[in-house]
Design goal:
The protein is of the alpha/beta class. The chain has 8 helices and 6 strands.
Protein backbone atom coordinates (compact mmCIF):
# COMPACT_ATOMS: atom_id res chain seq x y z
CA UNK A 1 0.00 0.00 0.00
CA UNK A 2 1.38 3.38 -1.01
CA UNK A 3 1.83 5.85 1.83
CA UNK A 4 3.71 8.82 0.38
CA UNK A 5 1.86 11.93 -0.74
CA UNK A 6 3.14 11.65 -4.33
CA UNK A 7 1.25 10.43 -7.41
CA UNK A 8 2.94 9.96 -10.79
CA UNK A 9 0.73 9.94 -13.87
CA UNK A 10 1.33 8.88 -17.42
CA UNK A 11 -0.08 11.46 -19.84
CA UNK A 12 -1.52 10.05 -23.09
CA UNK A 13 -4.41 7.71 -22.43
CA UNK A 14 -4.56 8.69 -18.75
CA UNK A 15 -4.99 12.48 -18.65
CA UNK A 16 -5.74 13.10 -22.32
CA UNK A 17 -7.15 11.10 -25.21
CA UNK A 18 -4.49 9.00 -26.92
CA UNK A 19 -4.02 8.57 -30.67
CA UNK A 20 -2.27 5.89 -32.71
CA UNK A 21 -1.26 8.79 -34.99
CA UNK A 22 0.24 10.62 -31.95
CA UNK A 23 -1.04 13.76 -30.27
CA UNK A 24 0.90 16.37 -32.28
CA UNK A 25 -0.48 19.76 -31.23
CA UNK A 26 -2.19 21.61 -28.41
CA UNK A 27 -5.40 21.52 -30.48
CA UNK A 28 -5.19 17.71 -30.70
CA UNK A 29 -4.56 17.47 -26.94
CA UNK A 30 -7.99 16.78 -25.44
CA UNK A 31 -8.54 15.92 -21.79
CA UNK A 32 -10.34 12.68 -20.97
CA UNK A 33 -13.62 13.60 -19.24
CA UNK A 34 -13.06 13.78 -15.49
CA UNK A 35 -9.25 13.66 -15.63
CA UNK A 36 -8.62 17.33 -14.83
CA UNK A 37 -11.02 17.17 -11.91
CA UNK A 38 -9.32 13.97 -10.70
CA UNK A 39 -5.94 15.73 -10.58
CA UNK A 40 -7.50 18.61 -8.64
CA UNK A 41 -9.02 16.16 -6.14
CA UNK A 42 -5.61 14.56 -5.62
CA UNK A 43 -4.06 17.97 -5.00
CA UNK A 44 -6.83 18.95 -2.60
CA UNK A 45 -6.32 15.61 -0.87
CA UNK A 46 -2.72 16.54 -0.08
CA UNK A 47 -0.93 14.84 -2.99
CA UNK A 48 1.88 16.24 -5.10
CA UNK A 49 1.14 15.29 -8.72
CA UNK A 50 3.83 14.59 -11.32
CA UNK A 51 3.70 13.38 -14.93
CA UNK A 52 6.13 10.96 -16.60
CA UNK A 53 5.47 10.53 -20.32
CA UNK A 54 7.11 8.98 -23.38
CA UNK A 55 6.95 11.51 -26.21
CA UNK A 56 8.66 9.76 -29.11
CA UNK A 57 6.80 12.01 -31.54
CA UNK A 58 9.72 14.41 -31.01
CA UNK A 59 12.29 11.79 -31.99
CA UNK A 60 10.11 10.77 -34.93
CA UNK A 61 10.00 14.37 -36.20
CA UNK A 62 6.21 14.66 -35.79
CA UNK A 63 6.43 17.70 -33.51
CA UNK A 64 9.13 19.67 -31.70
CA UNK A 65 9.82 20.54 -28.06
CA UNK A 66 8.12 23.92 -28.45
CA UNK A 67 4.91 22.19 -29.57
CA UNK A 68 5.17 19.75 -26.67
CA UNK A 69 5.51 22.72 -24.31
CA UNK A 70 2.30 24.20 -25.76
CA UNK A 71 0.49 20.91 -25.07
CA UNK A 72 1.80 20.91 -21.50
CA UNK A 73 0.91 24.57 -21.05
CA UNK A 74 -2.66 23.75 -22.07
CA UNK A 75 -2.78 20.81 -19.63
CA UNK A 76 -1.28 22.86 -16.80
CA UNK A 77 -3.66 25.79 -17.39
CA UNK A 78 -6.69 23.48 -17.32
CA UNK A 79 -5.53 21.93 -14.04
CA UNK A 80 -4.61 25.29 -12.47
CA UNK A 81 -7.84 26.96 -13.59
CA UNK A 82 -9.72 24.13 -11.85
CA UNK A 83 -7.73 24.64 -8.63
CA UNK A 84 -4.93 22.05 -8.85
CA UNK A 85 -1.30 21.82 -9.86
CA UNK A 86 0.95 19.43 -11.74
CA UNK A 87 4.23 20.07 -9.97
CA UNK A 88 6.54 18.87 -12.71
CA UNK A 89 6.44 16.99 -16.03
CA UNK A 90 9.18 14.57 -17.03
CA UNK A 91 9.28 13.38 -20.64
CA UNK A 92 11.37 11.18 -22.88
CA UNK A 93 11.75 12.51 -26.45
CA UNK A 94 13.44 9.37 -27.79
CA UNK A 95 12.23 6.59 -30.05
CA UNK A 96 12.47 2.90 -29.09
CA UNK A 97 15.57 2.45 -31.29
CA UNK A 98 17.49 5.15 -29.40
CA UNK A 99 18.07 2.75 -26.47
CA UNK A 100 18.00 5.62 -23.96
CA UNK A 101 17.68 5.25 -20.20
CA UNK A 102 14.55 7.41 -19.93
CA UNK A 103 11.99 5.78 -22.25
CA UNK A 104 9.55 3.72 -20.21
CA UNK A 105 9.94 1.05 -18.96
CA UNK A 106 13.51 2.32 -18.34
CA UNK A 107 13.72 4.20 -15.04
CA UNK A 108 15.35 7.48 -16.13
CA UNK A 109 12.33 9.74 -15.65
CA UNK A 110 11.61 8.39 -12.18
CA UNK A 111 15.31 8.55 -11.30
CA UNK A 112 15.15 12.23 -12.27
CA UNK A 113 12.04 12.68 -10.12
CA UNK A 114 13.90 11.21 -7.13
CA UNK A 115 16.75 13.68 -7.72
CA UNK A 116 14.23 16.52 -7.88
CA UNK A 117 12.59 15.40 -4.63
CA UNK A 118 15.88 14.39 -3.02
CA UNK A 119 14.21 11.22 -1.77
CA UNK A 120 13.08 7.80 -2.91
CA UNK A 121 9.67 7.41 -4.52
CA UNK A 122 9.50 3.84 -3.23
CA UNK A 123 5.87 3.10 -2.34
CA UNK A 124 4.26 5.94 -4.31
CA UNK A 125 1.34 5.52 -6.71
CA UNK A 126 1.96 5.37 -10.47
CA UNK A 127 -1.11 5.52 -12.74
CA UNK A 128 -0.78 4.43 -16.35
CA UNK A 129 -2.50 2.69 -19.25
CA UNK A 130 0.35 0.70 -20.81
CA UNK A 131 2.45 -2.31 -19.93
CA UNK A 132 5.58 -0.13 -19.94
CA UNK A 133 3.95 2.12 -17.29
CA UNK A 134 3.25 -0.89 -15.09
CA UNK A 135 6.73 -2.34 -15.62
CA UNK A 136 8.34 0.99 -14.72
CA UNK A 137 6.23 1.32 -11.57
CA UNK A 138 7.14 -2.18 -10.44
CA UNK A 139 10.85 -1.71 -11.17
CA UNK A 140 10.90 1.41 -8.92
CA UNK A 141 8.80 -0.31 -6.23
CA UNK A 142 5.85 2.02 -6.82
CA UNK A 143 2.23 0.92 -6.53
CA UNK A 144 1.00 0.61 -10.15
CA UNK A 145 -2.63 1.36 -10.95
CA UNK A 146 -3.94 0.55 -14.44
CA UNK A 147 -6.64 2.69 -16.01
CA UNK A 148 -8.72 1.21 -18.82
CA UNK A 149 -8.72 4.40 -20.89
CA UNK A 150 -6.17 4.79 -23.69
CA UNK A 151 -4.37 1.48 -24.19
CA UNK A 152 -5.54 0.16 -20.83
CA UNK A 153 -8.29 -2.10 -22.16
CA UNK A 154 -5.64 -3.96 -24.19
CA UNK A 155 -3.02 -3.83 -21.44
CA UNK A 156 -5.38 -5.48 -18.94
CA UNK A 157 -4.94 -8.79 -20.80
CA UNK A 158 -1.14 -8.86 -20.40
CA UNK A 159 0.13 -11.70 -18.22
CA UNK A 160 2.21 -9.28 -16.11
CA UNK A 161 -0.94 -7.46 -15.00
CA UNK A 162 -2.64 -10.48 -13.44
CA UNK A 163 0.65 -11.98 -12.20
CA UNK A 164 1.39 -8.82 -10.22
CA UNK A 165 -2.23 -8.31 -9.05
CA UNK A 166 -2.26 -4.76 -10.43
CA UNK A 167 -5.50 -2.96 -9.55
CA UNK A 168 -7.56 -1.77 -12.53
CA UNK A 169 -9.85 1.24 -12.76
CA UNK A 170 -12.24 2.63 -15.36
CA UNK A 171 -10.36 5.91 -15.61
CA UNK A 172 -8.19 8.42 -13.72
CA UNK A 173 -11.18 9.66 -11.73
CA UNK A 174 -11.83 6.16 -10.35
CA UNK A 175 -8.13 5.55 -9.64
CA UNK A 176 -7.90 8.90 -7.85
CA UNK A 177 -10.92 8.09 -5.70
CA UNK A 178 -9.24 4.81 -4.73
CA UNK A 179 -6.03 6.64 -3.76
CA UNK A 180 -7.91 9.21 -1.71
CA UNK A 181 -9.90 6.51 0.10
CA UNK A 182 -6.75 4.41 0.66
CA UNK A 183 -4.65 7.26 1.95
CA UNK A 184 -3.73 8.48 5.42
CA UNK A 185 -2.98 11.90 3.95
CA UNK A 186 -4.94 14.46 5.90
CA UNK A 187 -3.33 17.80 5.08
CA UNK A 188 -3.47 19.77 1.86
CA UNK A 189 0.09 20.38 0.74
CA UNK A 190 -0.10 21.63 -2.83
CA UNK A 191 3.35 23.08 -3.56
CA UNK A 192 3.77 26.17 -5.68
Amino acid sequence: MAKKNIVVLDRDGVINEDSDAYVKSADEWQAIPGSIEAIVKLCNGGFRVFVATNQSGIGRGLFDKNTLQKMHDKMNHLVEDAGGKIERIFYCPHTPVDACDCRKPATGMLDELELYLDKSIDGTYFIGDSLSDMQLALSKNCQPLLVLTGKGSLTRNEADISANHIPMFTDLAAASDFILNDSDTTSCTVNS
